[in-house]
Amino acid sequence: MIVYKKEDIPQKYIDCLELMESIYDISCVGGLAHIVVDDKNLDDDDIVFCIGQAVEEIQKHEQSGKDHYEVDDRVCTAHDTIQLGARMLEMDDDERECLMQLWGKFYR
Q1: The pTM is what?
Q2: Can you tell me the distance from the alpha carbon of 83 to that of 18, in angstroms, rounded to the nearest whole number?
């Protein structure tokens, strides 16, 4: 797929790119998704690992008894990481690589 303008990007990529942007707005190092987004480890196992880490962070926060508004960057990015991971698991290898190229070209 060749994309010349940001407005030509298919919606499934835009959804992921917006989640990635949200994560980076909170955490400049990519939060819990950094091994996928920054390091470009795009295998299923790596994506599942990130989702697992995000689920653990949410569970730890819920068990801590802290107020809903008392969250750190890892918890703030956890929900977006889970959504991003789920969407990426629906993609094949070429689509994931394309997503990373779009991220580098239009967002980072």
Answers
A1: 0.88
A2: 11
